[in-house]
Amino acid sequence: MASSSHVHDGPHNQDAISLQSEDEGHELDGDTGSSDSNYGSSGPASYCSTIRSDAEDYYWENGRRYHAMGGGRYLLPNDDTELDREDMKHHMWTLVLEGNLHLAPLGDSPQRILDVGTGSGIWAMQAADRYPSAEIIGFDISPVQPSWVPPNLVFEVDDLEQEWLWGTASFDFVHCRFMFMSVMDWPAMLAQAYQTLKPGGYIELAELDLQPMPSFKGKPSPPLIDEWFNIQGKILAKKGYDMRLASKFKQMLLDAGFEDVIEVVRPVPWGTWPSDKRLRAIGYWHVEQLKMGLQGITMASLTRAGWSAAEVEVFLAGLRAEMNDSRWQIQDQA
């Protein structure tokens, strides 16, 4: 399910939204096309030039490209395959949110929006199109975003775990999505978000609560998928990451000083088994982005834990087969 928390932050009266999602596993019947916006030559992106050379320092491992900035602590690749998966996941998430880019009640004319860990930049580009009144800033540790973007959008390169460079009370909205494998110190990150928000501003956290469960009582769980989550969860926990982070967002936001936290939880099927048309489409895109991303999600963490690349590939082949098996009717929460 998808959980969204809008939060007001004490003296600043800021709001926050935290979103989690549950995987289900329904049948395909809905819109499987992309709603992504395409942009031509509206304006070049701008980057923090002082760190750009370091930011473009990549390395290759088991055929995938990774970012070297931050000591290689980021376990996801930043190559074209991963960026395509991000765009696919974005489309799935807009279906979860019923066509919306966010749940925070921003009104029609927000002035400044910050997209944390912008990735391919697709959310920031669509937000810039949706809110022509706003200056949109998308920042990420990797400069992999398009060079030509809407005129009210800039991309910047920075490490979100370092000190943020924006002033106090700079933004109406801070958006943070799919970052459980990128942030180690969430209290520190949320403290910085709190400081950058204007009085009455909103923060929205969105994430899958990664614990697939049978959608119907008495249904079995897929064994390899269960094993994958168990193995991956233990490895990531040793490195400081939490696969069940989404269920903790609300309390983390309250602890950071935000007020009026709203949590929204929605089902996210694995596959096309649901009878509901929209859920079938969500389930289709969710499984497709997972199959595309399995190697990127898993390869670095398992090989650095002692697996050979060949062993990982055999394991992933079994996972893909299980994901294609219509007998398994499971879901996550978002």
TrEMBL record:
So which domain of life are we looking at? Eukaryota
Residue ranges that the Swiss-Prot or TrEMBL entry lists as coiled coil: none
Spell out the Basic and acidic residues composition-biased ranges. 1-12
Give start-end positions of Polar residues composition bias.
32-46
Q: Which InterPro entries match?
A: SAM-dependent_MTases_sf (IPR029063)
Alphabetical list of CDD domains matching this protein: AdoMet_MTases
User: What Gene3D superfamilies does the record tag this protein with?
Assistant: Vaccinia Virus protein VP39
Query: Which SUPFAM superfamilies does the protein's record reference?
Result: S-adenosyl-L-methionine-dependent methyltransferases
Residues of the region (Disordered) are: 1-46
Which protein, by its recorded name, is this? S-adenosyl-L-methionine-dependent methyltransferase
- Species source reads Aureobasidium pullulans
